[in-house]
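User: Teach me something about this protein's shape.
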Amino acid sequence: MSKSKSKKGVKLVRSAVEGILAFIISVVLFALSYCIVFQATFLNPDFIMESMNASNYYTDKKEEVVQNLTDLGYASGVDEKFFEDFITEIRLSDDTKDYLTEYYEGKRTGFDTTA
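Assistant: First, the predicted structure itself:
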């Protein structure tokens, strides 16, 4: 009778250990998959640039900047046509790409304001 009790006890301990190990492995696999997805998306500068291109980010930002500058210029008496070509989508795209590249490389980020 003591052998059957010890076998049941061993089975109980074994199933408890297997359950704990299965839980630990599932948590580790979840964390690993989460890190892989995070690395492939938000920590990847190419992903961010592609998302910006797909959503017309640069066109929207250009229109927003031109509208804000036009509103400010109107109060100062500046002609609206002055702000139409003040900034382009290409310049926004280049500046954003340079900024993100420097940011992801760990360099000091900034904009070229010489022009």
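Now, about its shape. Residues 71 and 80 are 9 Å apart (CA to CA). The chain is about 75% helix and 0% strand. If you'd like, I can walk through any region in more detail.
User: That's plenty for now, thanks!
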